[in-house]
Write the structure tokens for this entry.
Amino acid sequence: MNSVYLLGSRDCSIQDIKKILHEDLTLEVELDLKLKLQQQRIKLESILQESDRAIYGINTGFGALCNTIIPDDKLSDLQSNLVRSHACGFGAFVPIPTARLVLLLKIICLCKGYSAVRWELIDFLIQIFNHKFTPQIPEMGSLGASGDLAPLAHLSLPCIGEGILYFESKAYPSYELLSSRNISIPYLKAKEGLALLNGTQYSLSLLFTAWDSAIRSYHNSNLNAALSMEAFNCNLGFLHPMIHDIRKQKGQIHAAREISNWFEGSDLSARDKKSVQDPYSFRCAPQVHGASYDAIDYCRHIIENEINSVTDNPLMLSETEIVSGGNFHAQPLALASDFLCLAIAELANISERRLYQLVCGLRGLPDFLTSEPGLNSGYMIVQYAAAAAVSLNKQYCSPSSIDSIISSKGQEDHVSMAANAGIRCNKVAQQTEMVLAMEWLTAARAMHFRPEFKVGTKLKNLLDLYQQQVAFQESDHIPSLFYQKTLDFLKTINH
């Protein structure tokens, strides 16, 4: 039986989210929270019965149609129509792990109680999460303004028995799959469609996924730099702790310390050197990696705040107050995704430069890391491939958050484009992990031409383990056959 994660009054951390997803925890809700959610719904229904005033999205139309009053007997139709009409996404489908994350984040948001949806709706979402049913969500279509409307509409279609659900990587019509498991479809009552669609959970899931890759890439950048420094026979003076302490940049200090730790037991400082100073891609690694670390850490704070935020509209703030606001606007996530995109791209940028230095026939290494240059091309084109990825990363780094296109007849006259920023950020994150794999593959090959060097103990252990999986080949071969193995290897390292 799977372990349980109990949703209650305390906030969820990034580690909580990763644990729920990676360990397949089952969601349950504390009794006190369940009672609170039920009471909130009762209060909302009382307001609707006792008042004839227009309340946005509950008894009115949406967006530019906010002044259109909807009769009481049409309120359920209003919510179902909202979900159907907004399910207009397109493009590739979101990977199942990411879509599952969107569902989890939506459950957490609704459990805050300010959306005042029925317990039956929240329970339904928890049931499909626990059964590992995942809504099919197209990648494109969100402006990150009134929430991630199109993606969250696709997420919500199963609530009215429509749309597609994945189970064990196969796609099924929602109604068919839910019926086979005797899961009751809740359908929608007043406000519930709007509560499902208003929110930043899709943009947040994209930022979260990119961030998870980014922090891994940061640590692997420091590891790569250490191995490349060993292979390039660098001077280590630039890692002197005082240099970094007097700069006072937290990330730089962290990166310098992490890189230095890989040299414990190395003879690098004692080796004869052919250069007084090293290229910036080595010597400035702490400064560059550290700046990215600071940006990644900033994004961590934004993510953890947003996980525990209420991003619906309107919100039930008290027994008598239902207030419209703009918490659905994803500007914090748009800026963070753009910032993270730059930070990740720079890790790839400097990694490719180190790779370039290793294949240039410098400091006693053979041209392109082959003992027979000319007959063999060695890793000449590995650097080309890395350069192509880095160039595309730079194009992806054009910010989305500065672009706003007016929508809904001018009612929604400023939008964040957070989802577009997150999509780009994930592409950069994936390509950066590939560039880092290329650097590690190249540096590991370079070490075959340095049999006399004594490498740091922890680094040597990792290198030996890697070379058991990716053996050295003397003559020309197909480097791309080793990319996935190298990616997988770097993902297993516990920093």
Remarks:
- The chain has two domains: 4-199, 206-492.
